[in-house]
């Protein structure tokens, strides 16, 4: 193994360009997952440290590669949590007040989607949020998840189906519940049985020769 | 509505708003002073992995190595510069004819399927290999092509049992130490009916439109095109052998596609003769040929393969290269 201190000038130039172009979206990605300002700066630095060490592996264009690294570094912190649905909703409503021109979704709909989101598997949620929050197109999603575009397309399609079902279920649960308290809303969605979450069960598939 | 709600729930709508530019600049300056790894793959044996990671000692690198890049990291490439891949089938890369002639042949096969007495059945038996997922004992197997022999049995009560065992190596260094013993069980899984990891319904439609809808439920054919249809039909055959009407419907779906090429007679990896069809696509980012071999008497899918045709990207193979195959028994 050889260790090179700092890399040569062209490496540094290339990395600096990558850093400057991607710092804001990666920082935002980390902030969205960790929701801790101080930690976000540190973890973002760690993501780019990994990228620097793996500079030779970085594809050109970089696409979604860096999000894949960020995802793993965030997971390694053991701090990423399922966002509390009600927190998300409150923040969304607060942001709406700050920007009344923003296109608005009814509060109850926001709550249903937020609750449904919390019931999904980590991989489904990550997939959906990479697209909705990070705005990654399918090809970059595939790079972030280290899978083919076809596989990413299938996974996204199925994650959307599961979210849709979970939203419907959240609606039914909410209609059937007399409590609108914060804790009951969270518990009812997270405490669902495996059978109820049948659509979210891990599905083993062997796409195109996967074995 | 759901998509819009998801966007509204984004807790950081303005990425630039929360940035500390001074901190970012200081981090960049510091990172650029850190040592970078350089690569010396040829002399690096597998067992050096643990020692190397201990030297590096950075949790995030470990996380990335374990989760993302394990098969790709340079010190794990061991001796061969290129991963072993199966030989190309004769005629697999033929230019072929797209359009009407392929459609006519597929429609002829659809009629043969409808007249066939070969019934459908749930469950499947197949041998399969894939470049990117072949792992044994946590290690990627690169020096030889070792297929998995898979049997999926569906009991009368709907329970699934799926057993995958390593087969005999079919290419590469068949004596390599890292390859598993033939017959060694890779996985043995049983699912009650309610939890069976089913992709497709038991009752398949007998008309092309209905079948397409069933296939598209988990395969975005409309977005990704005919190659995704081929993937869906291959996945379907891993779960069940469709009955005559559904087989015919599948062949008619391919006939309707318009970009399917007819390759003529092809012999699969079990020595069975069939009719070959291909779709060329770059939906994975690399130009890839998707090949199907169909039994001329029953219209049943005999085999499915994927071949990189022009470039390998970051995959350590020499093109053209078969990167995936499955043969249905």
Tag the structure with descriptive keywords:
heterodimer; A: 211 residues; mainly alpha; Rna Polymerase Sigma Factor, Chain: A; Arc Repressor Mutant, subunit A; 2 domains; 9 helices; B: 329 residues; alpha+beta; ten-stranded antiparallel β-sheet; two-stranded antiparallel ribbon; globular; CU044_5270 family protein (chain B); membrane (chain B); transmembrane (chain B); transmembrane helix (chain B); transcription regulation (chain A)
Provide a descriptive summary of the structure in words.
- The complex is a heterodimer of chains A (211) and B (329).
- In chain A, 65% of the residues lie in helices and 2% in strands.
- Chain A is mainly α and 211 residues long.
- Chain A has 2 domains: 9-76, Rna Polymerase Sigma Factor, Chain: A; 106-195, Winged helix-like DNA-binding domain superfamily/Winged helix DNA-binding domain (Arc Repressor Mutant, subunit A).
- The radius of gyration of chain A is 20 Å and the shape is globular.
- The two termini of chain A are 33 Å apart.
- Residues 1-5 and 177-211 of chain A have low confidence and may be disordered.
- With 329 residues, chain B is an alpha+beta fold.
- Chain B folds into 2 domains: 13-76, no CATH class; 97-328, no CATH class.
- Chain B has 9 helices and 17 strands.
- Chain B has a 10-stranded antiparallel sheet, covered by helices on one side. A two-stranded antiparallel sheet of chain B has the order 3-12.
- In chain B, helix 5 packs antiparallel against helix 9 and helix 6 crosses helix 9.
- Mean pLDDT of chain B is 81; it is low at 38-80.
- At the A-B interface, strand 1, helix 1, helix 2, helix 3 and helix 4 of A face helix 1, helix 2, strand 1, helix 4 and strand 4 of B.
């Amino acid at each position: 193994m050889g260790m090179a201190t700092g890399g040569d000038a062209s490496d540094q130039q290339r990395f600096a360009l990558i850093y400057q172009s991607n710092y804001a979206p990666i920082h935002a990605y980390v902030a969205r997952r960790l929701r801790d300002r101080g930690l976000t700066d540190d973890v973002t630095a760690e993501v780019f440290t990994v990228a620097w060490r793996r500079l030779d592996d970085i594809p050109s264009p970089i696409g979604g590669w860096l999000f894949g690294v960020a995802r793993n570094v965030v997971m390694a912190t053991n701090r990423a949590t399922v966002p509390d649905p009600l927190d998300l909703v409150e923040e969304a409503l607060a942001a709406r007040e700050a920007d009344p021109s923003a296109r608005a979704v009814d509060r109850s709909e926001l709550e249903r989607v937020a609750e449904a989101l919390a019931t999904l598997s980590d991989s489904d949620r990550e997939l959906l949020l990479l697209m909705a929050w990070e705005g990654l197109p399918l090809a970059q999603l595939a790079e972030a998840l280290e899978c083919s575009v076809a596989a990413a397309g299938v996974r996204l399609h199925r994650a959307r189906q599961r979210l849709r079902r979970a939203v419907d279920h959240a609606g039914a649960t909410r209609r059937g519940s007399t409590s609108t308290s914060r804790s009951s809303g969270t518990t009812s969605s997270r405490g669902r049985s495996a059978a109820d979450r049948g659509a979210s069960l891990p599905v083993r598939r062997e796409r195109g020769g996967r074995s | 509505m759901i998509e819009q709600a998801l966007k509204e729930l984004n807790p950081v709508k303005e990425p630039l708003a929360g940035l500390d530019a001074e901190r970012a600049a200081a981090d960049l300056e510091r990172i650029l002073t850190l040592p970078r790894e350089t690569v010396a793959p040829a002399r690096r044996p597998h067992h050096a992995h643990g020692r190397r990671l201990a030297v590096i000692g950075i949790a995030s690198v470990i996380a990335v190595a374990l989760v993302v890049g394990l098969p790709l990291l340079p010190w794990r490439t061991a001796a061969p510069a290129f991963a072993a891949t199966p030989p190309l089938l004769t005629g697999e890369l033929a230019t072929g004819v797209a359009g009407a002639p392929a459609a006519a042949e597929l429609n002829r096969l659809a009629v043969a399927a409808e007249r066939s007495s070969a019934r459908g059945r749930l469950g499947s038996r197949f041998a399969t290999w894939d470049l990117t997922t072949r792992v044994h004992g946590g290690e990627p197997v690169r020096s030889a092509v070792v297929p998995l022999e898979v049997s999926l049995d569906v009991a009368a009560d709907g329970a699934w049992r799926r057993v995958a065992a390593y087969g005999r190596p079919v290419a590469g260094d068949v004596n390599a130490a890292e390859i598993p013993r033939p017959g060694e069980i890779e996985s043995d899984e049983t699912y009650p009916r309610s939890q069976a990891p089913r992709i497709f319904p038991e009752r398949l439609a007998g008309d092309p439109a209905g079948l397409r809808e069933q296939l598209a439920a988990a395969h975005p054919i409309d977005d990704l095109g005919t190659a995704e249809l081929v993937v869906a039909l291959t996945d379907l055959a891993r779960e069940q052998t469709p009955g005559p009407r559904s087989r015919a419907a599948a062949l008619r779906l391919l006939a309707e596609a318009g970009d399917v090429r007819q390759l003529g007679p092809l012999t699969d990896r079990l020595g069975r003769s069939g009719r070959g069809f291909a779709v060329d696509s770059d939906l994975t980012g690399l130009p890839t040929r998707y090949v199907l071999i169909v039994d001329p008497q029953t219209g049943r899918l005999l085999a499915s393969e994927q071949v990189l045709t022009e470039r390998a990207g970051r995959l350590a193979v020499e093109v053209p290269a078969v990167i995936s195959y499955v043969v249905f028994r």
